Amino acid sequence: MNADEIANCLSEEFGDAITGKNVEAMDPWVEIAPEAIADVAQFCRDDEQLLFDYLRNQSAVDYLITDARKAKKLEIEPRLEIVYHLHSYPHGHDLVLKVLLPRWKGDVEGELPECPTVSHVWAIADWHEREIFDLMGVRFTGHPNLRRILCPEDWVGHPLRKDYEFPLEYHGIRCQ
Amino acid sequence: MSYTIEDPADVEFDVRTDELLINMGPQHPSTHGVLRLVLRTDGEVVIDAVPHIGYLHRCAEKIGENLSTIEYIPYTDRMDYLSGMNMNLGFAVAAEKLMGTEIPPKAQYLRIIIAEMNRIASHLVGMGTYGLDLGTFSPFLYAFREREKILDLFEEVCGARLTYSYITVGGAHDDLPDGWLDKCLAFLDYFEPRIEEYHTLLTRNHIFIKRTANIGVISPEMAKSYGCSGPVLRGSGVNDDLRVSRPYLPYDEFKWEVEVAPFDDAPEETVVGDCWNRYYVRMREVVQSVSLVRQAAKAYVTAEGSHRADLPRALKVPVGEVYVETECPRGAMGFHVVGQDDPKPLRCRAKSSSFCNLSVTGALAPGVLIADLSAIVGSLDIVMGEIDR
């Protein structure tokens, strides 16, 4: 199926949970409401027409432009985006799912936003989500083992956030 | 500094009387760098293995957000440092796709020659160190003898032996030196007959087959679910090579084959998806790479254009995003680049193939012997620099 057909197929099944799409993009994407992502992922993997059995990549992007003039010019709303790159071996088609999250839960700085896990759908999402939690600060609800994977257990903050401040020292080691 | 452990899984406290907790690594020779495996064992049998990674974490993705694309190239070959050329290529292809840069034909063939030569060097290390993991030293010496010659060739091309930064956005930063191609082809003539030596020494060695056949079997479903790629995926019988399925260079002009299990000449003890098949995919790929380099060398001589496209001085990454995977020796290395109409990208995600391949270890470990665990981890052929980035 081409991207347009896949997007329509998802819209028929999930209705309002599909909040946006762009099938003209280099990698066509469909935007999913955060609370529906686990169901959509399960459907994408198991539906006979879709059969997305391979999660190529899962990553997060922090859309926060710190330069005010530039932010105004680009008109980018501050947000976090979780991106899922899917591939289907039986059908040979691709899709990108996107989930838009607020940068902080309830706009309270320090409260991590939440997103349902897809680690029960694709096993590799387990590690990808741990990495996103570690570096980008997103709490994946229902994840079996959500702890830091690359940074040490007692690291403070999430380094890939655009407003992350580097620590002055770590266990007596000067960092700046 | 006080630190309280909130999560009991952080340190595996909960051990039964007859169980033993073994810390394998991060300085263990068979963990290929700084990988730490915490094993819960009952005698010789592993009950559980938890990989701990991050010892080499340098936050390469954050660095990428603070540099222009060309400035970021030297950081990519510090990811998978055994195949720096392929890492450079992966990021360059992603950046070019987003910026809409066309690459001259000559540069494309040059890239194939270089990338395939590096694949040979990388698979040689893979073979040599796999022998070390299983307790045989001599294949390692043979592998490094040949790899040394490839490194000499690379040194002549770009001055570096490990971190090349040779392939860059728009092509490659210099053309091949005069007479280099002849030396390269002479090396291939020297090298090709020696592949049979490795097979005699290792592939068809009785002990080697005993140690690898039917060990660490990854089913095709499991390989897909864990996002495995490269030789690990093809060793499980899934026919996917990005050079064919998502071509980023003119590989389709040449005559070659994707190596995928099962093989006709496999010993009968082996099953699809075991350590032996993963190893053998690599060895067969070396032969394909030799043939690809020869064909690309022929095409390179008559190709038009230069070794690098003319690029504007201020190279801006436009608004938009792209995700490109390239077939590196260890699997599909992906770069997810998001632009913001600035030389510096907004996001520069590097999806590592070894990261995904390693994640399968925890699922393979229960029930195997400790010695087999190093056979399994070795067969995945991981490089920690790429996993931790």
Mind sketching the topology for me?
The complex is a heterodimer of chains A (about 180) and B (about 400).
Chain A (H helix, E strand, L loop, with lengths): L2 H12 L3 E5 L6 E4 L4 H10 L7 E10 L4 H7 L4 E9 L6 E8 L12 E3 L8 H12 L2 E3 L27 E2 L2 E2 L2
Parallel strand pairs in A: 2-5, 6-7
Antiparallel strand pairs in A: 1-2, 3-4, 4-5, 8-9
Chain B lengths: L19 E5 L11 E7 L2 E8 L7 H5 L4 H8 L7 H16 L5 H29 L4 H21 L8 E2 L2 E2 L7 H24 L2 H7 L7 H6 L5 H5 L6 H4 L29 H28 L17 E9 L2 E9 L7 E5 L1 H6 L2 H4 L5 H11 L3 H5 L1
Poorly predicted regions of chain B:
1-5
Shape of chain A: globular
Please give the radius of gyration of chain A in angstroms.
18 Å
Helix content of chain A: 10-25%
Name the CATH class of chain A.
Answer: Alpha Beta
Instruction: Summarize the amount of helix of chain B as a percent range.
Output: 40-55%
Shape of chain B: globular
Q: How many distinct domains of chain B?
A: 1
Order of helix and strand elements from N to C terminus of chain B = EEEHHHHHEEHHHHHHEEEHHHH
**Mind telling me the CATH superfamily name of chain B?**
Cytochrome-c3 Hydrogenase, chain B
CATH architecture of chain A: 2-Layer Sandwich
SS-based structural class of chain A?
A: alpha/beta
The pLDDT mean of chain B sits at 87
Question: What is the helix/strand order of chain A?
Answer: HEEHEHEEEHEEE
Please tally the helical runs of chain B, counting DSSP H or I stretches of 4 or more residues.
15
The CATH superfamily of chain A is identified as: NADH:ubiquinone oxidoreductase Nqo5 subunit
Oligomerization: heterodimer
Total number of β-strand segments of chain A? 9
* Largest sheet, strands/sense/barrel of chain A: 5 strands, mixed
Domain NADH-quinone oxidoreductase subunit D (chain B): 133-389
GO molecular function, one term (chain B): quinone binding
Subunit structure (chain B): NDH-1 is composed of 14 different subunits. Subunits NuoB, C, D, E, F, and G constitute the peripheral sector of the complex.
GO cellular component, one term (chain B): plasma membrane
